[in-house]
Structures are given as structure tokens and as C-alpha cells.
Design brief:
Radius of gyration: 19 Å
Strand order of the largest sheet: 1-5-18-7-15-19-20-22-21
Oligomer: single chain
Number of strands: 22
Number of helices: 3
Shape: globular
Largest sheet: 9 strands, mixed
Strand content: 35-45%
Length: 325
């Protein structure tokens, strides 16, 4: 299998939206590995005051990539700040298939990140109205970040956005909202060593990634994490033996299912239903027994509270499956 390196140059980036009509930047074979350079989800007002902090590719992208696409493009939903690298066409992927994304690496590619409090956003928008950005220095050697207020944080990088293209009939879709195609899931448990499964809606799947986070808590309560640029390595494999309606993930030890809804309780119910279905596919248990087992052994986490569709994910350790499964 091949390993393909893709730089964060303007012709490889789309800013703030996903669209099945975007021309693929590269074609790869099923099973190939792609190494993607990505840029931070930053608008011009999010940039550090010292422009020497910016990498050359970021400066070029800010100058040449249009936010929200070319003039006249109508984007459904709010345009996001996310610069995404892609889309990548995976040979053999067809609607109804599943794209298996093995997340192999996620490494900071710059020496700063930012966090922000923004108008009418976040979990407590009426209480936090001192709108501001705070910039953090990132030490890529020690894997730590030095916050402006004095805290030192250990880095745990992951991609906030991993996505296939949405259904073509939806047209261009803004990046802030996670949906069945993946997108702005902001799930810190989708870190290297995890395999993500995405339903395919278009020929070639059309995979994109970005929205690098160096550190985030479950909830992402203020609207941002420690936003930064990452280099990611992903193995992309077409799975014709699977059929799913929603993203899910796994490691050797556990399964993870996800729910997205404007109502947090409904998102939790969706994550639970998806886990019941997943365990049923991988065991001979009845749904009643699965429901009781998950109540004993599975954990629901609030993924994020701030991306229009709120997120909840459930994690279940495979060791609790019956030995005959």
C-alpha cells in the first residue's frame, strides 16, 4: 500500500464548508495511507498579534482561500472557521459503503494555539460576555502548552473534524454542525490508535480532515478547545461488508457510538440506540440483555455542548461481551 503526503497549500484546502461537488485533490486506493497537513480553525481575528508565529502555508491560505467557498456559493447552515484539507477520493467507495479511517497519528505542526470566548456561543453565552482570544505557546518537543494565564497543560492532539462529503442533494453544508457524515464531532476520544467508521454518501467517499485540537475537555464548554494546526496520518479503507447510518469507532478494547442532536437527551438516546445495535451485531445477546449490560458497564460522555447539534458518545469495553460472542 502507498503513503501519500498532502500539503496544506491553497489548492488542497476548503474553508468553512463541505460539499460533494468539490473536486477531489487526490485519488488514492483503498488501504492507502495519507499524511495530511492541516491548518487551524482560525479567522483573521483569532491570529496571534505577532505574525512571526504564523507558518508560511497558513499565511498563503489566509490570502488565497475564500471563506465559505467561491463568490456566489450558497452554503446551507452557518459557515465555519475550519480550514479542511481534502477532499480525497478513495477508489472503489460507493454510496452505501463504509469508509474505515484508521487514525494513526495527530501531531502539532505549529508552536501556538488559541482559545476564545465569542458572542452568543458556548454553553453559558449570557454569563460570559467579555469576548476575547487567548494564545498558548506549544512546545512540540515536551508535548505541553503554556497558557497565557500561567497554566501548563499536557497535549492530547486530535482532529475535531473528520468527514466524508454529505449527500449531494444537500448541496454545500457549513462545517459547524456534526451529522451522519461525521464533520465537527469534536470528540477527544477519536485520537491516534482509534478506528473511525463513516457511512459513504458519494462515489469516492471524499474524505476531509481539519480543526486540529491540541487539548480539549469533554464538553468543549466555551466553544473552542486549544485550536491549532495538526499533521495527521490516516489509513483509508473501503468496507463493502458493513452498512451503517451513523459514525462509530473502536479500538482493540472498546466500541464507541455517537449521537448528534440539538437536544442533549435525544443525542444520548441516539448514542445508546447505536450501541445496542452495534453490540447486537457482534454478539448473540438479546436486545433486552444488551440494554441491561450497557447500564452496568457502558459510559455516556458529553462530547460537546456547542456545535448546534450537541454530541454524546457512549463507550463500551469489549471485555464485557459474553465469551461465546
Amino acid at each position: 500500500m502507498n503513503e501519500i503526503n498532502i500539503d496544506a497549500v491553497p489548492e488542497n484546502i476548503h474553508w468553512g464548508y463541505l460539499d460533494a461537488a468539490l473536486k477531489p485533490i487526490r485519488t488514492v486506493e483503498s488501504g492507502d495511507t495519507v499524511v495530511l497537513d492541516t491548518l487551524p480553525a482560525a479567522l483573521k481575528e483569532d491570529l496571534p498579534p505577532d505574525v512571526s508565529w504564523l507558518t508560511a502555508d497558513h499565511k498563503e491560505a489566509l490570502a488565497k482561500v475564500p471563506l465559505g467557498g467561491p463568490p456566489g456559493l450558497f452554503v446551507n447552515g452557518p459557515v465555519g472557521p475550519h480550514m479542511l484539507t481534502g477532499p480525497i477520493y478513495v477508489n472503489g467507495a460507493m454510496p452505501g459503503d463504509v469508509l474505515q479511517v484508521d487514525i494513526l497519528e495527530a501531531k502539532p505542526k505549529q508552536d501556538w494555539g488559541f482559545s476564545a470566548i465569542l458572542p452568543n456561543l458556548g454553553t453559558l453565552p449570557d454569563e460570559f460576555t467579555n469576548y476575547q482570544r487567548s494564545h498558548t505557546k506549544i512546545d512540540r518537543i515536551t508535548g505541553t502548552g503554556q497558557c497565557a494565564w500561567g497554566s501548563a497543560v499536557d497535549l492530547d492532539p486530535f482532529f475535531g473534524i473528520m468527514a466524508v462529503a454529505p449527500p449531494r442533494e444537500w448541496g454545500p453544508v457549513g462545517t459547524p454542525e456534526p451529522r451522519a457524515f461525521g464533520g465537527n464531532m469534536d470528540n477527544k476520544d477519536l485520537r491516534p490508535g482509534t478506528t473511525l467508521y463513516l457511512p459513504v454518501f458519494n462515489e469516492g467517499a471524499l474524505f476531509s480532515a481539519g480543526d486540529g485540537h491540541a487539548k480539549q475537555g469533554h464538553g468543549e464548554v466555551c466553544i473552542t478547545a486549544l485550536e491549532t494546526a495538526l499533521t495527521g496520518k490516516f489509513r483509508l479503507t473501503v468496507r463493502k461488508d458493513l452498512s451503517i447510518n451513523m459514525p462509530y469507532a473502536e479500538t482493540y478494547d472498546w466500541y464507541m457510538t455517537m449521537g448528534f442532536n440539538m437536544n442533549l437527551e435525544e443525542a444520548a438516546k441516539q448514542a445508546l440506540r447505536e450501541m445496542i445495535n452495534l453490540v447486537a451485531l457482534n454478539s448473540s445477546m438479546t436486545r433486552d440483555d444488551i440494554y441491561m449490560l450497557l447500564s452496568m458497564c457502558a459510559d455516556l460522555h458529553v462530547t460537546q455542548l456547542v456545535d448546534i447539534n450537541k454530541g454524546v458518545h457512549m463507550i463500551f469495553n469489549k471485555k464485557y461481551l459474553p465469551q461465546s460472542a
